[in-house]
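Q&A log
Question type: sequence-to-structure
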Amino acid sequence: MLASIEKLIEAGFRDRVIRTDDLYHVLNGSPKRIQSLVYRAMSAGELIRLRRGIYILCSKYRSRKPVSFHLANQMVRESYVSFESALSFHGFIPESVPVISSAVRSSRSRVIETELGRFEYVHIPLGIKDFLTLVERVDAGLQSFLVASALRALADMVYERKLQWTGIEFITESLRVDKDELKTIERKDFELIISVFRSGRVQKYMRKLEQELFQ
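Response status: OK
Response body:
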């Protein structure tokens, strides 16, 4: 084990995401020295870069497997897991999703490829007050994460993909959402979603879905 990795573990970063500021604080050195230590640790396979300035220790030195939703939150600030990833998490669709898809507020849409998987971020242009409506925090200790409720994930999909209401069959057949799970959505949540999205198309879609479920 490299001395730099040992110091990071002693400082409590065994199972935490490591940022450049953490490296400077723990390793104490000039930018050139820190960069050299990072390159050496990466070359030795002891440090994994998720994206520029964000790292985690390799599996050999971690005490638990990284939670992909936590990594998704950490790699791009002001983001939460949504779309099919959230629907799968809540059991609304039958299969797991290989790409972790998130909504992001203040930065552009992008895809980040890492050794630990593919992470997709979709820009949802809402204000700070509305951005986390019907988004929950799941407590996983050092690896907690934010994930959209099933209804919020559906609304994000309607907004981003410019979907028009064609009937609930599209949701249950094309998106493979379980109809019985849809019936677990609380009616009051539709009002929250409609108040968040100013898009008339999203509002209409949510109204139609509400009518379908509660008629």
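Response note: The mean pLDDT is 94.
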